[in-house]
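Postdoc handover notes: sequence design on the structure in folder B. Input tokens:
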């Protein structure tokens, strides 16, 4: 049985699952779906065609599913889909998709979005990501699994960030960051591998090989795409192949600094 505060406004048509807790002065739209064991705290607003997965906790004053911040939006039907067991903290803003991006913003499972985080239209986020306070994702950004983005870091539209990459706080990211890498700065550039994160998730042998390949790609002063293509022909470790395939498909480019071979 769900626990719904008497001051909450739940429009006819909204689907509320089992054991859902809804706090005071919450507003939930007629097209919303709140799945089992979720919690919606005081003054949160759930708008539009929004699905909130099982076990998700939305904290006070979050605004979830309000129309995209895109001047091309003309009222078409769009969706926001949020997976299971997410924690969405105070004053966050999550927008649905737009027609130009497929109409769906999709958030995976077990993510932590800290206070004042913004998720723009048509974003695709994997599982187990952490976005610290004030991180902002512009439209069409894609995040893999296990991505960490530091506080007050904006990410430019259409940027892709690979699995287990980390972006330092107070950076500004305008290009793609490959899986397993660490980036920092304004504008953010690669600083190495995210070794702390990697040690929790992949084998020592894979990490050692990633170190070798990282140096070959980003510290050798060789042509990036040519080097990537050559390595793809010989590498068989799945994490290394994932990094190389990401680089080969990047549309916004990879931000790294070439060494000055003249000293």
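Designed sequence:
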């Amino acid at each position: 049985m769900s626990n719904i505060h008497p001051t909450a406004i739940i429009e006819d048509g909204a689907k509320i699952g089992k054991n859902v807790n809804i706090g005071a002065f919450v507003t939930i739209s007629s097209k919303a779906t709140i799945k089992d064991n979720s919690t919606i705290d005081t003054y949160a607003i759930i708008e539009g065609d929004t699905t909130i997965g099982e076990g998700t906790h939305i904290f006070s004053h979050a605004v979830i599913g309000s129309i995209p911040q895109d001047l091309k939006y003309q009222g078409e039907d769009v969706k926001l889909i949020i997976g299971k067991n997410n924690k969405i903290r105070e004053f966050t803003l999550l927008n649905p998709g737009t027609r130009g991006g497929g109409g769906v913003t999709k958030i995976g499972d077990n993510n932590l979005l800290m206070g004042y985080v913004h998720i723009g239209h048509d974003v695709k986020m994997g599982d187990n990501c952490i976005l610290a306070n004030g991180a902002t994702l512009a439209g069409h950004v894609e995040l893999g699994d296990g991505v960490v983005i530091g506080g007050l870091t904006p990410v430019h539209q259409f940027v892709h960030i690979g699995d287990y990459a980390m972006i330092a706080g107070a950076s500004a990211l305008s290009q793609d960051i490959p899986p397993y890498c660490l980036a920092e700065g304004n504008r953010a550039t690669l600083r190495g591998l995210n070794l702390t994160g990697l040690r929790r998730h992949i084998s020592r042998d894979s990490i050692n090989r990633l170190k070798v390949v990282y140096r070959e790609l980003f510290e050798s002063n060789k042509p990036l795409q040519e080097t990537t293509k050559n390595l793809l022909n010989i590498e068989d470790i799945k994490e290394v192949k994932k990094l190389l395939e990401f680089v080969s498909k990047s549309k916004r480019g990879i931000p790294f600094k070439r060494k000055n071979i003249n000293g």
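Context for whoever picks this up: The radius of gyration is 20 Å. Don't rerun without checking with the PI first.
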